[in-house]
Amino acid sequence: MAVEMAIWRMTDAGPRRLKSVALDSEQRLEDMLAEDPGMCGIDLLVIGRQVRTRYGGYIDLLALDADGRAHVLELKRDRTPRDVIAQTLDYGSWVQDLGVEDLEQIYLDHHDGETDLGEAFAERFDSPLPNVVNADQQFTIIASELDPTSDRIVEFLAES
User: Fold this and answer.
1) Which residues, listed in sequence order, are joined to residue 14 by a DSSP beta bridge?
2) 87-146 pLDDT per residue, tens
3) What secondary structure letter does DSSP report for 70?
4) Can you tell me whether residue 79 is helix, strand or coil?
5) What is the phi/psi pair of residue 89, to 5°?
6) Whole-angstrom Cα distance, residue 47 to residue 85?
7) CA 21 distance to own-chain centroid
8) Do the beta carbons of residue 26 and residue 33 sit within 8 Å?
9) What pTM value is reported for the model?
10) I want to staple 63 with a disulfide (CB 3.0 to 4.6 A). Which of 14, 71, 91, 113 is the partner?
11) At a CB cut-off of 8 Å and minimum separation 6, what does 9 contact?
12) Which residue from 140, 144, 135, 49 is spatially nearest to 87, judged by alpha carbons?
């Protein structure tokens, strides 16, 4: 279920919707979301950026929410081809099998050992890491535009 967001400029004549344009760089989008993952509408703790899966792909951002649910964020700076859905599901098939020890190691690998996952989680959410982590996963595709085929597939998966 795609969510469309708009930005408005307030003028003397009233609000005017600004035209949507593709970002100049996917890296820039990743930097912004890693700095403030709440921009995607959910409070998240980023575990890692460009996390390499066992299958050779790279998850743009892997995160946890306050309930211990794993989030796979796939970023596209422009319009999304439908294969981004398969790519995201492929990443999810790997993430679903990760235990808390795996997530801890990913966190340590991507945060230079500055703190461990439990400490970072407690600091972010003001509560300890839940006893059950990664029982559920959420997949989010962030793009400037979702093509109609991808939109239909996402709607189907959300309803199923």
Assistant:
1) 11
2) 999 999 999 999 999 999 999 999 987 789 999 999 999 999 999 999 999 998 887 777
3) E
4) strand
5) -65, -35
6) 22
7) 20
8) no
9) 0.82
10) 71
11) 15, 16, 18
12) 140
